[in-house]
């Protein structure tokens, strides 16, 4: 692909620490309207993540971005990303390799979602996770205030074995609660991935389909050789790095669907 992904900076974002479930991280907030928790992807709140965040603000949402890793506003680089990954791999908050795992960060995100829901209009909030944090959005949906979980390229647990490839990224008890919500209260989940992305195995989405059924909406972008979108086989970041604000860009269409999904679930009339 030609061109570059939308980016932004920290201008206008208000920073304050938030404590939940025994963890404290800075949270950056901006906007008005229904609340959306945007969990950054590795290596942190990069200009590309802020590009997505400012787009959501412009679409009428109050966006809260927790900063559990990385340096907010810093440009992404290979060395920077590897340094962050090395820390996250041994962090007890995230349990990057564990299966059937209840992760402390999920409890923190549920507390943040409740706080945001109490301060913003609408029946609840959305939560968007990406890459390393993709599955955390699903774990956040254990709480009833989360009405619009978005899992973009959920990569944890790292898919280095068969058991990890099928694991949905949260404990069985948490998953059972989310499945029950989908059946009893109409919770819907949106998942996004590239077709050839080995970091986000198709088996993980198959697990989600088997348990959530029609409540799991999937957007799978073609990254096979010769694909119409011009994506490389290594394409990964659906909502950030691969977006081009050009007509016909499939990642742009995916971002538009995320905005529509949030509106449908968080505004009474979906408008």
TrEMBL record:
The keyword Hydrolase applies. Keywords: Hydrolase. GO terms for molecular function: hydrolase activity. The keyword Coiled coil does not apply. Residues 31-244 form the Dienelactone hydrolase domain. PANTHER family: CARBOXYMETHYLENEBUTENOLIDASE, CARBOXYMETHYLENEBUTENOLIDASE-RELATED. This is Dienelactone hydrolase family protein. It comes from Streptomyces aureus.
